Amino acid sequence: MPSAAWTRRGAIPGVGPTLPAPLKAAATRTRSWWWLARSRGRPDGAGLRILFYHRISDDDDPLAVSPRRFREQMELLAAGGYYVVGLSAAVDLLERGLSPPRVVALNFDDGYRDVAENALPVLERLGFRATVFLPTAVIDGTASFPWYERQPPVLGWDEVVELDRGATLRFEPHTVTHPNLLLLDDATSRHEIAQSKLDVESKLGRPARLFCYPAGLFGERERRFVAESGFRAAVSCEPGVNRPDADLLTLRRRQIDPADRRLDFRAKVGGGHDTPLPLRGVYRRLRYGEGAPQRPSAAAVR
Ligand SMILES: [Zn+2]
């Protein structure tokens, strides 16, 4: 029961639920209907959207989307003529000033093994690509996610190395131990960011260029450390669309939730969920403490 554990231990999850699950599902559904009424189901092609998941599993876990739903969602994208790309290709497009309307970027956070078991075959069949963000000490087995009483299996480095050589998945760093970076002193925050890059590079034998802030929590300081560590781009958990002038170090993403139905998924892809749900900021401030949520500042957003 991960959600109970989160509350009891006050630990940060892979990404904080924005609101308690039933309330969030109801708010999401309402917004999806509003999008459908407004747009008549036509996707908004104003920029590039990044969708992210954690687990693909039938487990009762607020971070797990069922394999059946995931397959349906990917098939919906294929039927809609979407190109589904990893984040590296998405950043290439944005850097070239492009955001083609039928391109969606996909990523998975935290390196759960069920992504390889249940998502990878679907992605391979459809010719889709995705990026997976790894907290390197969790993959080492020397740290664990504090929000699980019994942590689901994560990939091992041998599997990561093998999968990274394939056509579909690319692995990038997500800190060393998956902390709330905002609560760390300067040296520790910088180390979590820079060391995870070195870890991934030494295992994979190639440069790591993309970073993911745990739970999407960052401030000006973290953004600076990410830039100084030599990353090309980083993703937050702020919802929204990325236009070619987006700040590459605070890219926006939309999480796909276990309760999302077909219409919710279409609305998320189509631009109906590009702004935070009402009260999300208040909820995250209460949950993560003073200063959160960290919104990209005007300077960072450009
Ligand atoms: Zn995470």
Would you write up a description of this structure?
With 302 residues, this protein is of the alpha/beta class. 42% of the residues lie in helices and 12% in strands. The protein is built from 12 helices and 10 strands. The chain has helices at residues 2-9, 21-39, 67-79, 87-95, 113-126, 136-140, 157-165, 186-204, 220-228, 262-270, 280-288, 298-301; strands at residues 49-53, 55-56, 64-65, 83-85, 103-109, 130-134, 169-173, 210-212, 233-235, 254-255. Strands 1, 4, 5, 6, 7 and 10 form a 6-stranded parallel beta sheet that branches. It has a two-stranded parallel sheet with strand order 2-3. β5 (103-109), α5 and β6 form a beta-alpha-beta unit. Mean pLDDT is 88; it is low at 1-11, 13-17 and 290-302. Bound molecules: zinc ion (ZN). Residues 14, 109-110, 174, 178, 214 line the site of zinc ion (ZN).
Task: State the gist of this model.
This protein has 302 residues and is of the alpha/beta class.
